[in-house]
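Colleagues,

Please find the record for the two-part complex below.
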Amino acid sequence: MNVNRNYAALHESYLFSDIAARIRAHASRGGTRRIIRLGIGDVTLPLAPVVTEAMSAAAAEMSCAGTFRGYGEEQGYAFLREAVCGYYASKGVNLDADEVFISDGAKSDLGNMPDIFALDNTVLITDPVYPVYVDSNVMAGRPITYITGDISNGFLPLPSRAPRADIVYLCSPGNPTGAVYTKEQLALWVDYALRGDAVILFDSAYERFVRQAHLPTSIYQIPGADKCAIEFCSLSKTAGFTGTRCGYTVVPRALTRGGASLNKLWLRRQTTKFNGVAYVVQRGAQAVFTREGLEQTDAQVAYYLQNARVIAEALEKKGLWHTGGVNSPYVWCACPDGMNSWEYFDYLLENADIAGTPGAGFGSGGEGFFRFSAFCDNESARDAADRIKKL
Amino acid sequence: MNVNRNYAALHESYLFSDIAARIRAHASRGGTRRIIRLGIGDVTLPLAPVVTEAMSAAAAEMSCAGTFRGYGEEQGYAFLREAVCGYYASKGVNLDADEVFISDGAKSDLGNMPDIFALDNTVLITDPVYPVYVDSNVMAGRPITYITGDISNGFLPLPSRAPRADIVYLCSPGNPTGAVYTKEQLALWVDYALRGDAVILFDSAYERFVRQAHLPTSIYQIPGADKCAIEFCSLSKTAGFTGTRCGYTVVPRALTRGGASLNKLWLRRQTTKFNGVAYVVQRGAQAVFTREGLEQTDAQVAYYLQNARVIAEALEKKGLWHTGGVNSPYVWCACPDGMNSWEYFDYLLENADIAGTPGAGFGSGGEGFFRFSAFCDNESARDAADRIKKL
């Protein structure tokens, strides 16, 4: 018996435990001001009323013989897949319901999707990055190359500097950087994938934070993307589902490699290793896509965007280079005065009682940068901005 | 770009679509009696009141800022892991909460668990079998050997006839056979695993159907099993959660291979590729383990067991060899008069308007046998039994 030896190559991340330890140490020194936490990317607003009402109603259905539901389809109930199609149609993207797979969140599908690809495929990942892309391929032993984001490319690496690869991960709006690819930039990636027979795994978890109409909210708004891209979406940040667990993944029927339909491979993977999302949760998710649900969750997104704007303005005033803050709940800034990520973390904690996230925690390309999360209340964001301005 | 070539080696299963097609064809010939469906292993009773009340209350919590929950731990909330430990304690098995992983169902964890094992491990699978064990290893390209269940071993294959293997799948009470290993028999498997450095993946999804006190309801009731076994449990059949999606998997801390803790490997797998089960669902699951919840769900299990008993009695009266029917929701019988599985399916459908599941659908070892599912209402079970007796 041998365990999967690739697990030994995983980097243990102590990022958030290190952050917590430093906050505890700082608090124990007994300052008078409250510490403002802008570190973790978890939502703070409760679920929209339309969502919890739908979940309660669904729970009631499950308690009656006449309306009880047993096994659903692994890929999700038709009512939710059709609601997702309706949402895509509002973006000008036409999908069939069987191109949509309901999941328990983007992380699961991003982590499991590589199952359908051969182990000898090469992987291209931007740096800094959401660690799941890296770790799920390290676990499978696939060779990974990185393409670095920096100030010169606005943390939006482009394929002109990229080596050939089979699987490419892109995230827009980016986590941790908040940077958003334009349609022209995404078209370059689509062209790269089509020419090189690559598949783009497009993490679109923050798409609803995009407010500028010229920016894409789906890679399928780029012609040809249905032949080279899989898109991962989530209700976690867009509707407060971090503790409720529902997302959706689009695998177009036009997407084939080596004669095989990736849609069919993923369906086979899911029917074998997944049993679908709880009925009550899918009813809650469906409610998000109603007119009322979109209004209620839009107000939540706007609330967080207001926080991001306030923080970004303070950085602007301090003359710190930054990206994100508009079209994203994250603000990503260059650390001042040549500080590295952790030095700036300590500096902010000691002098402003603000806890953010050191950019180095997202890969070596994040060193010298810092992430502020706007998932907090308006008052905290305003206070944090005031404190930053006074530094 | 290459897709995972192993997927091409998967057998497409048309079992349940074939069954549905034959039922449709039979119905279209216009019989007068209703067709009794004893094919699919899906529950029919609604969720217990204690469960749906807990889910509604949790949904209400999620709608208030003061009680809202964002990300939970990937391995599940402590309240549910501790409730599972309490349930195990009632079986005489002591677990720590960090040995319990809450999942969205046994199928997901059974399918994903092989991720933590090397690809060159050999796999031993009983035949007939729940297809997920086979398919998830075919997808990874692992070599599989089979050990056959038959009348001589009561569909409970023992290691005396088994070749050496690294990973062994056992299911007790069995799906599709309903057969239950005794403690002495399981002890042989534990001994086999300890001597050969193997790991047993023990599917215990039907443990609550075991009513005879001398039979084990957990492999950890066998000394030494904590050093060689992972146990998969589910609320799907025991509490009607097939559409609500919650299970739990036990990976003991004492279980190590090649110096690596399988508990830590699985935790790493889950934190990377899973984000935990919805808070509302975990509250519903917690309610199952309260005194009231155990009473309410026990009544459901008893209801299905009554059906199984009635069906088994009819087979007994017809002189058909069978197993299951007690301690299991499935009854597994030898087809009469040398019929093969599909011939008996057609015979039952045409002459008794009963639809079951041909044993051959669960592997070649199931040829000549037939599965009846007791997940139906009492009246259907009684009617089916009457019709069988009159054949």
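Chain A touches chain B through 77 residues (CB under 8 Å).

Comments are welcome before we finalize the supplementary table.
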